Amino acid sequence: MGLMEDIISLSKRKGFVFQSSDIYGGLNGCWDFGPLGVELLNNIKKQWWQSMTFRDDVVGLDASILMHPRVWDASGHTKQFSDPMIDNKTTKKRFRADNLIEEHIQKLRKKKKTDEADALEYKLEHINHNSDLYDLIIEYGITDEGSAEWTDVKNFNLMFKTFVGPVEDSSAVVYLRPESAQGIFVNFKNVMESARQKVPYGIAQIGKAFRNEINTKNFLFRTREFEQMEMQYFVKPGEEMKFFDEWQGLRWDWYKNLGIPENKLKLKVHEKLAHYANRAIDIEFEFPFGFGEIEGIHSRTDFDLKQHQEFSSKKLEYVDTVNKERYVPYVVETSAGATRGLMAFLSAAYEVEKIVENDKEDSRTVLRFDPRLSPIKAAIFPLVNRDGLPELAQNIHKDLQRHFTTEYDSAGAIGRRYRRQDEVGTPYCITIDSDTQSDNTVTVRERDSMQQEKIAVDKLKLYLLEKLS
Ligand code: GAP
Question: Which of 3, 160, 245, 368 could be disulfide-bonded to 176 (CB atoms 3.0-4.6 Å)?
């Protein structure tokens, strides 16, 4: 099995991630987070939330998923949020035209046809119309199952449509939001006034987003339902680049400080900018299938606020009473995927390590999560299931459980119990043995070093709380 398959298999076996509607054969592009997955996801979101809102100039918001349909006209999503699709007339299969070309570039690279691959990549980066994509597919003889019978390239809107109320007509159409950001833009004034904020200030939000992606792929990487952690920082026009640099540094450090090795992170500067942006950069992570975006940092100018101002006919200006000026603020956005991020943290933490135990060579699977992200913080083991040890262990378990997630495990050899916890990333295992009865100590074993330490029972809680914070 490849690394990716190993991670997916562990995710299911240990209860991190299940396929949505598994017993019905699954629903493509949708995933469920199991008991450990939801803890991990919540921990990631908590770390992000704290990093954003434990400061004076960023406040939180939780906007609804369904919004007024005019929001999406103003943002440009109704017209422009689409993928270029092409159908093969013979095989009847549908593809994203740009993906087809990208796959062809990869094939050329594998065949060491570097010049041809570079030339095609250059052309792909400089296409202006859908017809250019069609022309490239024909020019390079791209086929599906040997067939080069392609339709024209057509745009396919990625927003999920539904209806409010009982009548399914065009006046009742609403969309599941494809990004959480628009909920922030339309609340720019509400938040500023109620939270008494002054520019520069930011609004942070965590929430679900939905995109009817054509090709869902790579486990949690591209799904149809996912979660975003977005922050829009409103600044005076002309000051956006300074804040862009600042946020870029903060976001890079956030991943690094939560345990992602820097050699697995990369910045990708956007050469071709979206219509609303004057600067954009992606933070990429090296997944088992290669580097992929985990977060976008965009300088979105005043595009969104101005659009909403025009479409709603409500002023979305900032009035600076000190300097006696008024303007529509510019926006620096940090847009991270919570679910895609979970996959990054999971992949970065995953390791199969060779170890020597009792003079025997062995291996263990270990998730080296930063303890703040670990779904279970400590596991409690009575060494044997007699002589009062289970009762003592249960007392310690219940006491610690008031502060963080713990697991009680009394089944099997102690080595097997360690392995089970290593595999889900539990940083500390606590063994209760006869010493606990005689001198009130327990053995604490640390996941990564596998070092063991004797700790007095009355010091245990503080010891762990310090290590976990
Ligand atoms: N408001 C800006 C925005 O939504 P984006 O680059 O389209 O920008 C931001 O998305 C982040 O959301 C991505 O970096 C990724 O982590 C996550 N994301 C986007 N589409 C996704 C999908 N189909 N599945 C999982 N995560 C996705």
Answer: 160
